[in-house]
Amino acid sequence: YTANRSCLDVNMDCVEDEVCNKQLSLYLKVCSVNKKCNMEECQAAMRFFYHNMPFEVAQMMTFCDCIQPDESCHSAKELLHGKPCATTSAPLPSCLSVIHMCEENELCSFKTIAVHFFSSVRKIFTTFWDKCWRHVTKECYDDEACLETLIKDDMPCSANADCKAAYISNWGTMLHVDCTCQNSPPAEQSLCKLFHHMLHSTSCFSQLRK
């Protein structure tokens, strides 16, 4: 298992492996871009696929990427990452509302994760927060006014193995869905942008891909 793999190479490796290909076929059948998307069914298929893969395999697939303008690779990436079926809803929700909904949603808040780092029922968001972001948010804990003061543009996640596992556990839940801060009230903009950065930061997760 090696890091920095292209999504096309990872996809082809999975197809050539009997066990991986069987599970991938079931996942892609539900999340096919050629039919009308059922977001909840696709998310459930994504959770089953990634949470039942060996951690190293799930990690390669999650953090694969493409170099422009490789269309074949980008198509493979879209298939592996469930876009747009599992991650895009219309209209896009506020990132702040996604966090609040997650805190109230049993599926988002609790999950048995059968990967190397998690063997018991834990809160997905709390685990993700703790493993990826606690080092920069520990002074604020859950104080929203304090969180608003944090620097967002270059705030790195921990990018360690526990963080990677916690991030993969987000896939197939509302935490993985695209969100926006465009329509948030001015008073909520800073906090919303902070959560957008935490959930979808390209700088943080490009570090993870490396």
From TrEMBL:
One of its GO terms (molecular function) is signaling receptor activity. Pfam families: GDNF (PF02351). SMART domains: GDNF. Residues 7-85, 95-204 form the GDNF/GAS1 domain. The keyword Glycoprotein applies. GO terms for biological process: cell surface receptor protein tyrosine kinase signaling pathway; nervous system development. One of its GO terms (cellular component) is receptor complex. It is found in: Cell membrane. Keywords: Cell membrane, Glycoprotein, Membrane, Receptor, Signal. It comes from the Eukaryota. InterPro entries: GDNF/GAS1, GDNF_alpha, GDNF_rcpt. Belongs to the GDNFR family. PANTHER family: GDNF FAMILY RECEPTOR ALPHA-LIKE, GDNF RECEPTOR ALPHA. This is GDNF/GAS1 domain-containing protein.
